[in-house]
Structure formats: C-alpha cells, structure tokens
Specification:
CATH topology of the largest domain: TIM Barrel
Largest sheet: 7 strands, antiparallel
Protein name: Glycoside hydrolase family 31 protein
Shape: globular
InterPro entries: DUF5110, Gal_mutarotase_sf_dom, GH, Glyco_hydro_31_C, Glyco_hydro_31_TIM, Glyco_hydro_b, Glycosyl_Hydrolase_31
GO biological process, one term: carbohydrate metabolic process
Radius of gyration: 26 Å
GO molecular function: carbohydrate binding; hydrolase activity, hydrolyzing O-glycosyl compounds
CATH class of the largest domain: Alpha Beta
Family: Belongs to the glycosyl hydrolase 31 family.
Number of domains: 4
C-alpha cells in the first residue's frame, strides 16, 4: 500500500511527495479552491464533462476564508482495494449535501452511498442525483471527483487505537433495539471515504469563510448557476400520455378561457411512434401536423416540452448510426448511446434539431436516465454495471454520469442556437450547476419533496416537487403551494384525463366523475398560480444571482444561518432568493410550527411584524402562501399575466418592509437568449427613500421589462 499523508500549507500549490509511480500535489486552480491529486487519476470523472469553464472573475470577488483544518491533515491511501480518504471533522460540525438526498438532511453520523437509483428510499444515499460532495456549517465544502460508487462514513467510524488496560470504561445497558444500534458522533472525528477500484483520486476543497460562500465557490467553479428562460419560471402542465393533437388544443383552450396561468405544455410518451424504447419520431396518427400544432400553441403563449428517454428503438432513424456507438447491453430493449463520445452526442442532437426543434419544440423531459431500483431484485430495466462502451467507460461510471451527459447533449443543442430553455431530468451529478434543468421523481412523499428543495440547494441542483393526484383537495392544495414555492411549478397529469383540481382521485378523474365544487377549487388554484406569476420578477433576479454569484435561489436555512443550532435539522423551511422564507404544509395539518431565525420578519399575508429567534404557529389557508419576508426588503410583485412572452412587461407593486430606507435589484434582459452574457442586460436598482421608489437602470438592454406603478410601505 502506498500511503500518503499531506504535509503542506493549504495556501500553496506545492508538489508534496512521490512514491513509485504515484505523486500527490496540492494546487489552487481558482481563488479559494484547492485541488488535491493522488495516484493515477481515472479518465472519466464528473469534471471531465463540465459544461462551462470556472467563472474566475466572479471567484475573485469572493473573500478567501480559512478552512477549519490544515489540508495537511487530509490522509489519502491507495491499495489493491482502491482509494481511501480521511478528512477531519470538528466537534459539533454539521454536514449536508451528497446531491439530491431523500430521507435525510443533516448527514452527521450516517453512512452515505450517493449512487444513482430510480426510486430512492431510506437514508443510505441512493438518489437521482448522487454527488460525492458535502458542505459543512463551519464554512467549507469537499468534492471527491469520481464517477465510481463511493461510500462516505460521516464521522461514525473510528480507527483502532491502543488503550490503557487500566482505562475504566463503564458498562451501559441498552433497553431498546433503537438505542442499542444508535449512531453517536462526539468529539473530533473524520469523514472516511471509500472508493473501491480507484487507483487515484482528485479532491476539491472549497473554502468559505462561511457555508454560503463555500457553496457559491463550488457553483462558480462549475461555471455559475443556471439561468432558465423566463417563461420557464411560469407554470408547466403535462397532459395525459394518450392525448392527441386535438385533446391538447382543447386543454389549452380551457386554461385560457378560465384564466388559469400556464406557460408550458408537456407532451408525454405517445407523441412518438415508439416510446419504450424511443423512436424520436412523431406519431402522425396522434399528431398529424406537429408544426401547425406547435405554432397554434405558441400563438396562445405556450411553449412545448417533449418527454423522451435516451434508449433508441430499432424503429428510430438513430438506430443504425448509433448501433456501433452504444453499449454492449441494452435498456428497455433499446440502444444505450455512448454519450461520453462527442460524435455520438452530436448525432443524437442533430436528429433533435432537424426533427423537433425545427417545428418549434422548446424543451425536453429526459426520463429514465438513472438506474433500475437497486433495492429490488426484479428491477432490471436498465443496463448492467458490467456493460462496456466504445469510449472505454464502464457501466458503473456510465450510470453515475449518464444523466449529466444527457443534459449536456440536449442543453448544447439549445445553446448553439442562442436559445435558452428549461429542461426536466431524472438524474444528475457534480458540475451540473449551469444546466437549466429541474430534477423530478416517481416517488411522491410530500414531506420528502419539501426536504428535497432544501437538499438540492447544497449541491448546485434544482428540484421540482411535481403535483399529480392526491387523497383530498386539501392535500392537493398543500402540494400546489409547495410547487408554486419551488424552482419549477410543475403539474404532471400524465395519467389524468382532467386537471387534478377538478377531481383529485385518479380513478374518478379518468371516469369523468368531476367534483361538485370544482369551480371553487379552480378559484383556489387560479389564486395560487397567479401568485407564482406575480413572483416572477423576484424569482428571475434570484436565478441571475445564482448564475452570476453562485447563490442558490432555493436553499436551507442552515446556509444563511450556520451558527443557529435550531436550524441544524430544520429541513421543511427554506429561503427563496435573498429575502423570502417558505414554510410549506404537508400531511393533514391545520397548523404548523415555524421557526424564524434572528432578525425581524413579516408575515406575508397579514404584515404582522415578528421577532426572529422564536417559533410561531401558522394556520393553513387554502389560498394563502406560507411565506415570511425579511425586514429591509423591497419585494416587487407583478400584476399577474396568463403567460410570459418575449415582449411581456411587468407592472410592479413594490412592498417595502422595515425602515423604508433600503434598496433591491432586478435583472432585465430579453429572457430567451444568451445575449445577456455579451452585455445586453440591465441591472435595475430599486431604492426606497422619502416615501417612494427610485428606479435606476444600468446596462445595454434597450427595452423595459419592469414598470413600478405602486409602492406600499410596511413598518
């Protein structure tokens, strides 16, 4: 075994030690980012396929913080089994991240195996987006740059040490199974990382000085956060899988006649001649004139998003050109494209451009790119880990990277055409921050869905807690409120004939047995959807802060308040942008407890002034969003529109909370292209003083998106 112990100050890029053919080095590739390399680095890692270069200029703007240990204290060893890492863990330190975790939030004391899986359960780490990445409330983050299945022991295991034979260790009697096997973490410890089969490794350390800055540094090093097309922040509605062209147009007419805002219509599998596996060819029996249909939908202010997965049917025109560019095992009886290979990605993308983008399609739902459920022996739809691909990558690594590479393939298609989008995907990995893509799941536990909003923000991910059927209208409203207060407001009716608010029960819905009070239900949903549309200017600016500064638009309270012990395990509240705190309801609750961190807050619905550091009781209301506003905020709320178009202008009412002397900002551009990267954008300053709002624009964008028509001061 070749064991390396680092002995270098972390602030210097220094070659440390060489033994045999392996060498260990520490470099600083960007401000406050440290890269540790040991052994023979594998050819295919998440960083190999990063979409954007690190935003060096934005990284330079961040203050460099201290890491609470010396990088010389990180131990790496390589032996015949693989690679092992020990990273210091301080007393009282709290760990978060590992991608889109399900069933756990604070990861202290847990064994985490961030492995891609299509139906995540329990708290082991199986997930749609497995990132070998964690962040500490002490102000740093760690990324282990590997696509191997990796295990993290988060302070729960200790190496053996010689003990004095006379040491008095008191015997303890446990009186329950739970107490007997409970994991306890106390004192200083280590995070142990086990990467079986690896002959070398790269470790990235992202410094703070605080938790938020460490996350910003990771996102900016990945190239900055995603900035979706503005229309993507509206409501997305996916229609029933067997809807035909006329059914879709009728559904859209319903939304427009009822003034229920919808901006994106999603088509499910039957738009293709074959779906499992995919043909990527329009089914003319269902869609006789796709281009005409898309044009009609566009005229009504709607974008079109198509469902697909990447596995290629023998009925597809892609089958022959991809046959020799795919793995030696299939998934859903279709070819598995070797997306590691750029020519393969180009062939796949060209077909999409020529056949789908050419008729006006503006986005895709990329399904089934994770893996068969590893917890079940009968789940066998995906390719096995022993699969070999022409590029040389193996099945294990391909599983971990497949969703990331799929995103890269489709996103580049839009980027090359200077067209922004907002996509859906079921799998992702590290360095995905720049992709305008929301993750989704076939799981449907609402409490977990809320927790996943908080978890996604740690790792440069966006999560969509989609709404399908429910057990009651109350549950449907709770889910709808969560969706409206998330990165993507998605209603997925792929197996429902009618919108779920007309009948929440799946069976009755498909039999046409609609609720007697459906009109009242419509009004509740209309109110929630209109609130979402009112929030678009604020959300759009939050996403620009993500793109330019790496600040997650949705993030757990621990990120902003890392020293507050009351938020260490608080996963069902989260920040939206700089100033909003959301506390969604779940279950059948009539009330819930809401903890507000230090400072002064306001109840969004009542304007009641509340002192932070305390817990309050909030009552559930069908048509009111569970929101709180931080003092000294200017909250711009738009007059709601039914959809966002290229020329939409927003009339704003600015709510000024607190002293009345504060300022805020909006981001203004065309909302649909990448021209903002070349300076065609404005930063709009909103400054409250002397009882009114002063508006100042700085930038080269010639049009106006925002007009302030009213100001309300709330003290």
């Amino acid at each position: 075994m070749n064991r390396i112990v680092f002995s270098v100050l972390f602030c210097l890029p220094v070659l440390l030690l060489k033994m045999g053919f392996a060498q260990t080095s520490v470099k600083e590739p960007a401000n406050g980012v440290y890269k540790i390399s040991e052994g023979v680095i594998e050819k295919y890692t998440p960083e190999c396929f990063r979409e954007e270069k690190a935003d060096i200029n934005a990284l330079k703007q961040l203050s460099k913080g201290n890491i609470p240990f010396n990088i010389s204290d990180i131990n790496v060893s390589v032996d015949s089994r693989g690679c092992k890492i020990a990273i210091p863990l301080g007393e009282g330190e709290q760990l978060y991240g590992f991608g889109l975790q399900v069933g756990s939030f604070n990861q202290n004391g847990l064994r985490k195996m961030p492995i891609v899986n299509d139906y995540p359960l329990n708290n082991l780490g199986y997930t749609h987006a497995p990132l070998p990445f964690y962040v500490s409330n002490k102000g740093y983050a760690i990324l282990v740059n590997t696509s191997r299945y990796t295990t993290f022991y988060c302070g729960s295991n200790q190496p053996k040490r010689k003990q004095n034979i006379d040491t008095d260790i008191p015997a303890e009697t446990k009186l329950s199974v739970e107490e007997l096997y409970q994991t306890k973490v106390s004192g200083r410890n280590n995070v142990l990382v086990d990467i079986k089969g690896a002959k070398g490794i790269e470790i990235y350390v992202f410094s703070g000085p605080d938790m938020l800055t460490a996350i910003q540094r990771y996102n900016l090093f990945a190239g900055g956060g995603a900035l979706p097309a503005m229309w993507g922040l509206g409501i997305k509605y996916r229609v029933k899988a067997d809807f035909k062209q006329t059914d879709i147009l009728n559904a859209v007419d319903y939304f427009r006649e009822k003034h229920i805002p919808v901006n994106v219509i999603g088509l499910e599998p039957h738009w293709q001649t074959a779906a499992y596996p995919c043909s990527f060819v329009w089914d003319k029996a269902f869609f006789p004139n796709p281009k005409e249909m898309v044009s009609q939908l566009n005229a009504k202010g709607l974008q079109v998003n198509l469902w697909e997965h990447a596995f290629v049917s023998n009925q597809s025109p892609l089958y022959k050109p991809l046959y020799d560019r795919s793995g030696d095992y299939m998934a859903f009886h279709g070819l598995v494209p070797d997306f590691v290979d750029k020519p393969t990605r180009d062939i796949f993308a060209k077909h999409h451009k020529d056949s789908l983008l050419s008729v006006g399609v503006s986005g895709f739902k990329m399904d089934e790119c994770d893996n068969s459920d590893l917890s079940r022996g009968d789940a066998r739809w995906s390719f096995p880990e022993m699969t070999k691909f022409p590029s040389g990558i193996d099945g294990e690594q391909m599983h971990q990277l497949f969703g990331l590479l799929y995103q890269k393939t489709i996103y580049n298609l839009f980027k090359e055409g200077n067209q922004r989008t907002y996509l859906d995907v079921r799998s992702s990995n590290a360095f995905a921050s720049p992709y305008p893509v929301a993750l989704y799941s076939d799981t449907y536990d609402h409490k977990q869905y809320i927790e996943m909003i908080s978890n996604a923000g740690f790792s440069g991910l966006l999560w969509s807690p989609e709404v399908r059927e429910s057990n009651s209208f109350k549950e449907l409203v709770m889910r709808s409120q969560t969706a409206v207060l998330s990165a993507q407001a998605l209603f997925n009716s792929w197996y429902l004939q009618y919108p779920p608010w007309l009948q929440f029960d799946k069976g009755k819905n498909n039999r046409g047995e609609l609720l007697e009070d459906k009109e009242a239900n419509e009004q509740v949903i209309r109110t929630l959807f209109k609130f979402r549309m009112s929030l678009i200017p604020y959300l759009y600016n939050a996403f620009y802060q993500y793109q330019s500064k790496g600040i997650p638009p949705f993030r757990a309270l621990i990120v902003d308040y890392p020293e507050d012990e009351k938020v260490f395990n608080l996963s069902d509240e989260y920040m939206i942008g700089e100033s909003l705190l959301a506390a969604p309801f779940s279950g059948n609750a009539e009330t819930r407890k809401v903890y507000l961190p230090k400072g002064v807050w306001y109840n969004f619905n009542t304007n009641e002034k509340l002192i932070g550091g305390k817990e309050y009781t909030l009552k559930f209301e069908y048509d009111k969003l569970p929101l709180f506003v931080k003092a000294e905020t200017i909250l711009p709320m738009a007059r709601p529109v039914d959809f966002i178009s290229n020329d939409t202008q927003f009339d704003l009412t600015c709510y000024v909370y607190g002293s009345g002397k504060t300022k805020s900002y909006l981001f203004e551009d065309d909302g649909t292209t990448f021209d903002y990267l070349n300076g065609k954008m404005n930063i709009v300053e909103l400054r409250a003083e002397n009882g009114k709002i002063m508006v100042t624009r700085n930038g080269k964008f010639k049009s106006k998106r925002f007009n302030v028509i009213k100001t309300i001061f709330i003290k």
